[in-house]
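Shall we go through a protein fold together, starting from nothing but its sequence? Please make up or recall a protein chain and show it to me in full. Go ahead whenever you are ready, and we will take it from there.
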Amino acid sequence: MYKNSLTFRLKAAIFLCLFLTVKCLVAQNTGSYKYVLNNAEQSWNTDVLFVDNHYYVLSNGDKYAWHYLEYRPLFFHPQTTVTVFDEYFNQVKQIKLLDKTFDGMMFFYENNHFYVFGYKYNDKEKNCKLCIAKFDKDFDLVRPLSLHNWEYQYAWEYQYTYVWTNNIIRTQSGEFIGVVIGKHGFFGIVQISNDGEFLQEISTPYASLHTIAETDSHYFVSTAQNADGDVVKFCKDSLDKYELLTIGQHILGNELPDGNMTIVDNQIIYTNYYQEANNECDYGYQQGCSIVFLNKDMSLKERLIVGKDCEFNFGGCMHYLNPDSIYQVHRRLDIPNTSTASYYNFTISNFNKNGQLNFTLDVDVNDSLLLRHIYGCKALADGGMIAYGSANDFRMMEENKRGYLLYYHPTKDVNNVKIETQSIASLPQISPNPAHTQFTITNTENATITMYNLVGQKVKQVVGKAENTLIHTEDLPAGMYILKVENGNGVVAKKVQVVK
C-alpha cells in the first residue's frame, strides 16, 4: 500500500512538473501588444485598414454629449477623420473627410480607392440617409456621394443611429452587403455594387440584426429576435427569400447570445455569454465567453469556454484570415471581492475552425480611461491582429471619450521588430518562396533565425554560421510561417509559405 501511495505521489509530482513546464512554454509564446490612444478627445475609432505598410484609422467625434437621465443626445456634430500611422504606430498625417454632416463608420480599399460607408445628416429635417463616399489615395472625393433613399427619422430631436463596424462585408462576388436600421425601427439588409452604388434593400420584420457573414450560397445574419440566438438566412440568388433559423437547441440554460458570429468553410461560429454561480465573487456568479462551433448541417460541433473566476466577459468580435488561426477579442470586466474599483480590459483568444484552442491571453491596460468598448477587430497578414474602439472614464461623459488601437502579435516584440526598413540589399531574402522541402535565407551570418507558425508556436530555431543558411521544411505542415532574423543590427520579420 505504501509502495502504491509512493508511486501515485511520484506520478503526481511528474505530472505537476510537466504541467508547470507546459504553462511556462505557453507564457513564453504569448507575444506582446501595443495600446495606442487617439490624440484628439471626443473621438472613437470605427474601422482600420492596413495599406502599403501603413495603418489607416477611421474615426468619428468632435462635439457630442449625452443626457443619461433622459437617454438622448444633447448635441451631435461628428467630424470624420482618417489618421495614418506607420507600422510602428507613429502618426504620419490626419485627414478630415467632408463636413460635419457626414458620419463615416466603415471603409474598404480597392483599386487605389477608399470606399467609406456612413450616414449623411439633415438637421433641418431631423433625419439621415445611408451614404457611400469614394475617395482616391489622398482622400480627395472622386465623385458625388451615393445617397440611399431609405431614410431613418429621428425619434427624438437629435437622435442618431449608425452601422456597427462588423455589419458590412465585401462579398465573394466583390459587392457589398450591409445591415441597416430600416423604416419603423425594423432591420434589413442593403446590397451595394462593387463601385459603391445602391442596388436593392430588403426589409425584414425582425427588430434586431447583428453580424452578417457569408457562405457559398447564403448570407447569414445573427439576431437577438429571441433569447435563443436565432440567425436569418438570406438566399444569395434572391435576397427577398429569407428564413429565421433557430439554433436555440445549442444554447445552454446559462448562456445568452451576444450577436457575434463568423463563418469558416461554410460553418457558423458564434459567441454567447456563459454565466455560472461562484460564491467567491461579490455578485455570486461570473460570466465567461462561450464560443460555439456548428457543422454545416447546423448540428453542434464543439464549444469553448473562455474566462476566469469572478470576471464578466462580453462585447467582442471575431475575425480570421487563416482558418487555423481565428482571433476572438472581448471585453473583460474584473469583479473584485474587495472594494477595489472594477474596470474593463481585454481577453484575446485564438483557435482553429475545429474548436481547438491555440491560446488565450489577458491584456491589462493601465490608464484612467477604464470603460473600454470594442467596435471591431481584424486579423492581419503578419499573423497578428488589431482591435479598435473607444475608451472613457468613470464619469461616463462622452466628451471624455477617446479612440484606441490594440495591436497584438503572438511572436514578435511589437515595440522593437522592424519589418523591411533597411535597404533591400541588406535585408534577408528567402528563396524559393513558397518552399517545398527547403529554402535558403541570405544575410544570416551570426544571426539567430527563429521560425513560428501563425498561432505563435516556435517550430525551428538555428544560428546562422555563414552568409546564407539552408532551412529544411520536410517535417513542417503546409502553411504560412513567420521567420524572425535577429542580429546585432536589429530584428527583421519575413513571411515564408510551405507547400506540399
